[in-house]
């Protein structure tokens, strides 16, 4: 249980990453991804990378610059412009629904305008799921200048789009429904210079 703990990615740029074992039994037609990050990076960096053998950016949450998030599904992305970080923790949730192609984005418990993305698509199972690097090939192909440096916590992935109340509950670290990946019961393996430490605040 990683409650009140964080992954600290200490180097910039970094070749380190955290692998999250995940094997959904069938393709994902809906999902919500949430996580919390704390960094002073201004260069592009990857927060969450879910690759299959067919598509390296099957699910990707990427921050190309301090005032923008990119949310990828099946290799296509939508952009959400955000206020430039105040050098504080940022909590992000990204939800996607295949039937409508609706992409949701929540920052610190507040929704951004929804956008259309990959209607009718199915996210493949048998994935390599990594924190801290962007995969350009299944389980590898990293560009160190897209690596994450800083602190990551509260990583969750559900196979549904959470309700607005649940999105806010995720931001507040309240009780959450069972998830495919849950910070409260996370299996993980670390490669390189990543340290698990108590959260400072």
TrEMBL record:
GO molecular function terms noted in the UniProt entry: complement component C1q complex binding; metal ion binding
Descriptive protein name: Pentraxin family member
Pfam families in UniProt: Pentaxin
Keyword match Aminoacyl-tRNA synthetase: no
Cellular location(s): Secreted
Entry-linked Gene3D superfamilies: 2.60.120.200
GO biological process terms held by the UniProt record: innate immune response
Domain Pentraxin (PTX): 3-201
CC cofactor note: Binds 2 calcium ions per subunit.
Gene, per the UniProt record: Apcs
Cofactor(s) the record lists: Ca(2+)
Oligomeric form and interacting partners: Homopentamer. Pentaxin (or pentraxin) have a discoid arrangement of 5 non-covalently bound subunits.
Keywords: Calcium, Disulfide bond, Metal-binding, Secreted, Signal
Organism lineage string: Eukaryota, Metazoa, Chordata, Craniata, Vertebrata
Any single GO CC term annotated in Swiss-Prot or TrEMBL for this entry: extracellular space
Main localization category: secreted
